[in-house]
Amino acid sequence: MDNNRKGVFISFEGGEGGGKSVQIVRLREKLEKIGKKIVMTREPGGTMISEQIREVVLGKKNMGMAYTTEVLLFQAARAQVYRELIIPALEVGKWVLADRTSDSSIVYQGMVREFGVSEIKHLNDLSTKNTYPDLTILLDVPVEVGLARRNGTEKMDRLDLESRNFHEKVRQGYLTLAKENPKRWVVVDASRTIETIAEDVWSIVRKRVIID
């Protein structure tokens, strides 16, 4: 953890259908019960401007989007939510729970789109002002399971419609990041029940982040 940071920053990452949006709410509820002040956000999104960008970058009607456009739109949304929401919250001691953040760009654009990991990391530094999570929980699920959960739902977006091979590369990209940085990342088997996963997440948070 950053000793100069008053708040705590926890992110949830993973491929499509891993249950991030569900687990982040479960964790927020548990933290609020012990008196923590929580800010919950998502990427892309989290602020008025970032949500407008989300509609463009994830819109199914935009399948012809250039990779460079995709990269820069994600970074634009990120820069706004960090400036407007995440950094101010951490400065006053709140807990920030994020459904995806800069690691998603490393995987999706840096690795899978082959835009370049070093290039994405540089852009992330600019967008986040070098602000990164204290703990990242990777909700790992087999691709076929994750996509089956999303198929036919209103949550289906432009990236969901990518090929099976694309999603396999995303999963492996995340597992690679987690292996490279075990001090920040913890991998959770997200193919199990919501309750079991939530219990594991809570145990990890209690172990990795000191709760007063």
What would you note in describing this structure?
With 212 residues, the protein is of the alpha/beta class. 53% of the residues lie in helices and 13% in strands. It contains eight helices and five strands, in the order βαβααβααβααβα. The protein has helices spanning 20-33, 48-57, 67-91, 102-112, 117-128, 143-150, 164-180, 194-208, and strands at 8-13, 38-42, 95-99, 135-140, 185-189. It has a five-stranded parallel sheet with strand order 2-3-1-4-5, with helices on both faces. The mean pLDDT is 93.
Task: Please give a quick description of this structure.
The protein is of the alpha/beta class. Helices cover 53% and strands 13% of the residues. Helix 2 (48-57) packs antiparallel against helix 3 (67-91), helix 4 packs antiparallel against helix 5 (117-128) and helix 4 (102-112) packs across helix 7 (164-180).
